[in-house]
C-alpha cells in the first residue's frame, strides 16, 4: 500500500493543512492507524471533500449527508457570504475572527479566497448603504489578522519561504487575501510593504519572489524584474494589473 506525506497530499488535492486537520477531527476523513502518513483511500476521501466543499456546503451539512442518511441541503456560497456579513454587522471582533478562521479551515485556500472572500470584498467596496465604511474596515482588519495567524503557523511548520513584494495597490485587502491563498498552498509568505525595490541577491532567504501589481508597474521596476528573470532568479509578476505605466506610484499597504 502506498502512503503519502501531508505535503504531497496537499499538492495532489489542493487542500491545505488546516483543511486536513479540521476534516479529520470532524470524522469526514477516516483515521489512519498504520502510520502518520496518508493512505490512498484517505487521499480519495480528501478529493471527495474538495468536490463537496467547492459548492460552499458546510462541514455540518456534509456530515449530516454522510452519517445521518439525510439528503444534502446545499446553502452554498451566498449563505457563507451572509454569515460573514452578519458578523461584520453584529459580531464582536473575536466572533468575526473565529468565523473567518473556521471558514478557512472548511474550504480550500483557492475557494476560500477566490470564490468567497474576493467577491465579498468587491461587494463591500461597492456598498453605499449606511455603515458600509465600518463594515469594509472591519473586513480588511479581519483579513490582515487572519493572514498574520496563518503566517505564524506556516513559520512554525517551516514551510517554503516566499516574498510577496508590493509594487502597487489598487485594493489593499487583495494583497492580504493573496498572502492567505499562497500560505494555503504551502508557502510561508512575507509581505514586503516598503517602497524600495528588493534586490535579487544570491543570499536571499526566499525560494520564491512575487511582485504584486495591483495598479500597474513602472518601467523601472519592469526592467528590474526582467533583469532578475534573465539572471535566473525565482521572480514572477502577480496581481490584477501587470501593465506598464510610466508614472505608476509605488504604493504602501496600510
UniProtKB/TrEMBL annotation:
Domain Transcriptional regulator MlrA-like C-terminal as annotated: residue spans: 169-232
Pfam families xref list: MlrA_C
Domain of life from the UniProt record: Bacteria
Name the UniProt record assigns to this protein: Transcriptional regulator MlrA-like C-terminal domain-containing protein
Amino acid at each position: 500500500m502506498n502512503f503519502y506525506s501531508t505535503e504531497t497530499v496537499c499538492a495532489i488535492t489542493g487542500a491545505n493543512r488546516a483543511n486536513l486537520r479540521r476534516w479529520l477531527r470532524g470524522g469526514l476523513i477516516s483515521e489512519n492507524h498504520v502510520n502518520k502518513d496518508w493512505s490512498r483511500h484517505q487521499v480519495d476521501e480528501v478529493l471527495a471533500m474538495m468536490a463537496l466543499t467547492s459548492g460552499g456546503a458546510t462541514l455540518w451539512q456534509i456530515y449530516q449527508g454522510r452519517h445521518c442518511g439525510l439528503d444534502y441541503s446545499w446553502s452554498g456560497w451566498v449563505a457563507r457570504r451572509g454569515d460573514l456579513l452578519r458578523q461584520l454587522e453584529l459580531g464582536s471582533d473575536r466572533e468575526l475572527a473565529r468565523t473567518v478562521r473556521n471558514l478557512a479551515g472548511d474550504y480550500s485556500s483557492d475557494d476560500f479566497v477566490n470564490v468567497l472572500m474576493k467577491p465579498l470584498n468587491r461587494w463591500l467596496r461597492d456598498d453605499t448603504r449606511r455603515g458600509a465604511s465600518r463594515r469594509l474596515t472591519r473586513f480588511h482588519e479581519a483579513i490582515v489578522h487572519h493572514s498574520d495567524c496563518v503566517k505564524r503557523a506556516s513559520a512554525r511548520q517551516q514551510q517554503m519561504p516566499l516574498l510577496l513584494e508590493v509594487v502597487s495597490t489598487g485594493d489593499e485587502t487583495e494583497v492580504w487575501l493573496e498572502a492567505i491563498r499562497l500560505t494555503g498552498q504551502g508557502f510561508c509568505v512575507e509581505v514586503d510593504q516598503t517602497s524600495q525595490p528588493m534586490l535579487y541577491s544570491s543570499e536571499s532567504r526566499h525560494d520564491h519572489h512575487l511582485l504584486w501589481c495591483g495598479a500597474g508597474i513602472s518601467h523601472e521596476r519592469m526592467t528590474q524584474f526582467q533583469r532578475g528573470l534573465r539572471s535566473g532568479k525565482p521572480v514572477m509578476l502577480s496581481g490584477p494589473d501587470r501593465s506598464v505605466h510610466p508614472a505608476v506610484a509605488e504604493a504602501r499597504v496600510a
